[in-house]
Input
Amino acid sequence: METTAWMQLHSVMSAQQERRPLARATLRRIAAFARPHRRRIARFVLLGVVTALLAVATPVLAGRVVDAIVSRGDAGRVVRLALLIAVIAVAEAALGILGRRLSSTLGEGLILDLRTAVFDHVQRMPVAFFTRTRTGALVSRLNNDVIGAQRAFSNTLSGVVSNIVTLVLTLAVMLTLSWQITLLALVLLPVFVVPARRMGSRMARMQREAAELNAAMGTRMTERFSAPGATLVKLFGRPEEESVEFTRRAARVRDIGIRTATAQSAFITALTLVSSLALALVYGLGGWFALRGTLEAGAVVSLALLLTRLYAPLTALAGARVEVMSALVSFERVFEVLDLDPLIKEKPGAHEVPEGPVAVEFEDVRFGYPAADKVSLASLEEVATLDTRGGAEVLHGISFRAEPGQTVALVGSSGAGKSTIAQLLPRLYDIDEGAGAIRIGGVDVRDLSAASLRATLGMVTQDGHLFHDTVRANLLLARPEAADDELWDALGRARLDEVVRSLPDGLDTVVGERGYRLSGGERQRMTIARLLLARQRVVILDEATAHLDNTSEAAVQEALAEALEGRTAVVIAHRLSTVRAADLILVVESGHVVERGTHEELLAAGGRYAELHRTQFEKQAAELPAAG
Output
């Protein structure tokens, strides 16, 4: 058989044997994605039909050449037939290149549409979705499953059409040449297909095992090669044992690779042997007919060549359902993500935040984190079933108001609910209906447009996250149209300009994954510079100075004081020294506001704030002699 035919047959035989019903809803959605490409699909199918016609023509012409030679006929006829075969070969080559281009254009276009749809949809998902989902599983939907769905158009569609045309034409021509030999070829088909399918099932299991072992090895490498993972291994790991464990996993990948390669070789050898035996029978029986004068010698050659084009389409069509089901599984996994309804949506006709300085208000806010089954998928968390628990209230009747230009500080124990309060303002999470109200400028945040909310409210989180990109690109996230002098101004106000100027490429220096080429304090100041560049009217600082030393903290506090002037701010701080000047301090414990007032009022009250203050400053005082 031809190499392409063998590869196609090998692909079908090693596919996962899975019986699934055809989902009409899935097919309708696939048709919707394919509709913009319908003209390209039609050209692709037509090209497959023409290619199949040419594939059958060559064996017939080869037989006529043999007949002309045997009969010692016109030499010119032999030359003309040879030239026609050459022209067909050139045409097949040209159509093959054109078909490959059409296949790539169609497949890549579908990949683009699917990936864009999934990416845009995932961008609309709430933060709760990302806190539960395994990043690798989500990325797999954008890569492996999308590519699997694409194969339904670039491979399966053309394969089914061309195989049907090739099969019909081949059988028709073979029957006209010799119905006896054709029936013999069909009788031998089970001997060809059954062992192949059994071997294919075994190979499919080995390939799935290989994929799982490769995934396990890749996961371990990803964890160990990330900056935090590499640091952890160096601090607490045992390099020798890490090497032994990796070698063990890599050895299992090696072993399954050897087994798969051996099985593939046996598979191809067995099929080649059966095909060779069939060809021997064709030549033997056909030669016997030819010697008896009931069949032309050229017909024997044509039948032998046509036989090579008979088994592959028959077997491929027998396994077409497997390919279709595999493609449907990929489509369903993609649609599964697209069908996950975002909990946080923008209302039709959403309002804009009023102009000028704005107030921030929480009115009797109660909140519980959503259950997993409302924001995630079991397949993305890689669990059997999702946890249906959730909704337990973690904030209980939170009420406060920050007037335009005022600063409200949230203090309290770790896990008290301070960051949860801050995350509700930019709608990283949403409260339920009837669970109070959160307003900016007198408008409920659920009634504001997402663009207006982003333009009004800025947030600096405690982890100081940066993308693996340049300093410039990380800053321009805040304001893409900002000029270089504005970037340097923001860096200067964040007390980071000298650091950036000392970097090899200045603003064009890549900061590394999560910004790990910078120190913790430098990363935090970079996020503060991004906030200063954005110039939003409401600012949330969630432990914004947590990773700074005393010198850097003092410098950044000066920059923040300048940046917060005239702006409404909600500040979460562990160091009470950073919130003394706040207009209002809320002490949060177990989701309740247990105290409120200014720094002086809360110290005078002698409650929880005074206890936190005394504990923190007594600890600092005790550390001073040791530091000295």
In short: The two ends are 85 Å apart (CA to CA). Confidence is low (pLDDT under 50) at residues 1-8, 12-20, 624-628.
